[in-house]
């Protein structure tokens, strides 16, 4: 499974930071983050909402473009080790310069420069998707969208929204999504992880995304599932994350196979891999063990993912060759 070429579309950049990396950076900066780690060194959190606060605490030691350059290398080394050949990572100017576009440019330059070096060294291609943070509110999202619009291009390819989907409504963020869309950015939205099937419907109706982050609770409304399939909406599924956080009680209970059988375009990602004790290899192994997925199905998943990727045609052509085309 490790050697199968994989494409990941749902990866939070800071959430992919290895715990040892964050601990080391905290020590360098003299910051006490001992409360966010278990005795074995892994991240410690009680539930999804506590996870968000631990995530933000870990991110607090990422304070400079150089810190993000080092983070990017660590994340890409881990992804490449697990067979990932193309990845799209969620980045937020909230954490990279506080929403100031000039500061954001510096962070983005450091991330992209490191990603380009990793592509040469490791054979993994990275592209960025700016995300606003839902629980920070719609007013805070506006400068984030402006940062995205100002830096849209061949590397910064998408705009989305992450965070606590129980806060506010998708339509509250319409200005930000319109701003990003007008700049040519492709759209994805987190929904249907915690907010039920209604949150998926609300996101589709209000923001017209091409992809939904998670979206798995749509399974509770089969008419919605059929709409997603008919409209070609792609779901960025993260089964290991969902099971670890308790969205579903087990891998067997996860609806990814049912969704796939009903014609939904599903993809596979890790979300925040060290938080959820997973890798892309582990995701594939669990899917094979639970649902009997074989190399043919995983190849279909990779090709669906590539088709849904927000990168340009030239990049897709390059990645397709690595899939055997």
List keywords for this structure.
eight-stranded parallel sheet; 325 residues; globular; TIM Barrel; 13 helices; alpha/beta
Give your account of this protein's structure:
The chain is α/β, with parallel strands linked by helices and 325 residues long. The chain has a single domain, classed as Alpha-Beta Barrel (TIM Barrel), CATH 3.20.20.140. It has 13 helices and 8 strands. The protein has an 8-stranded parallel beta sheet. It is globular and about 50 Å long.
Order of helices and strands: EHHHEHEHEHEHEHEHHEHHH
Summing up helix and strand content along with how strands pair, one would put the structural category as: alpha/beta
Q: How is the biggest beta sheet arranged?
A: 8 strands, parallel
Based on the structure given, which CATH architecture is correct? Alpha-Beta Barrel
Q: What's the count of strands?
A: 8
**Oligomer category:** single chain
Calculate the terminal CA-CA distance, rounded to whole Å: 20 Å
Mean of all residue-level pLDDT scores: 96
For the record, the count of structural domains works out to: 1
The share of residues in helices is 40-55%
Inertia-based shape: globular
CATH topology: TIM Barrel
Q: What name goes with the CATH superfamily?
A: Metal-dependent hydrolases
């Amino acid at each position: 499974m490790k050697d199968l070429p994989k494409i990941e579309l749902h990866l939070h950049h800071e959430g992919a930071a290895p715990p040892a990396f964050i601990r080391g950076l905290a020590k360098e900066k003299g910051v006490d983050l001992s409360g966010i780690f278990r005795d074995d060194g892994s991240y410690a959190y009680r539930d999804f909402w506590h996870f968000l606060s631990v995530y933000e605490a870990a991110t607090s030691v990422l304070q400079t473009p150089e810190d993000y350059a080092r983070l990017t290398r660590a994340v890409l080394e881990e992804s490449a080790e697990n067979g990932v050949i193309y990845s799209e990572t969620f980045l937020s100017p909230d954490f990279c310069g506080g929403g100031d576009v000039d500061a954001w440019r510096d962070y983005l330059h450091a991330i992209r420069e490191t990603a380009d070096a990793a592509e040469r060294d490791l054979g993994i291609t990275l592209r960025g998707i700016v995300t606003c943070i839902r629980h920070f509110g719609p007013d805070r999202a506006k400068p984030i969208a402006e940062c995205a619009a100002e830096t849209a291009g061949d590397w910064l390819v998408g705009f989305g929204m992450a965070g606590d989907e129980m806060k506010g409504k998708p339509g509250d963020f319409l200005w930000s999504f319109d701003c990003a869309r007008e700049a040519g950015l492709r759209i994805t939205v987190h929904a249907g992880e915690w907010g039920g099937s209604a949150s998926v419907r609300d996101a589709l109706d209000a923001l017209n995304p091409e992809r939904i982050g998670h979206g798995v609770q749509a399974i509770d409304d089969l008419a919605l599932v059929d709409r997603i399939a008919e409209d070609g909406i792609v779901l960025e599924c993260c089964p290991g994350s969902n099971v670890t956080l308790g969205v579903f009680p087990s891998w067997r209970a996860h609806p990814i196979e049912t969704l796939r059988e009903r014609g939904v375009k599903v993809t596979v990602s890790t979300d925040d891999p060290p938080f959820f004790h997973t890798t892309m290899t582990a995701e594939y192994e669990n899917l094979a063990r639970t649902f009997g997925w074989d190399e043919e199905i995983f190849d279909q998943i990779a090709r669906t993912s590539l088709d849904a990727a927000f990168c340009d045609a030239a990049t897709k052509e390059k990645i397709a060759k690595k899939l055997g085309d």
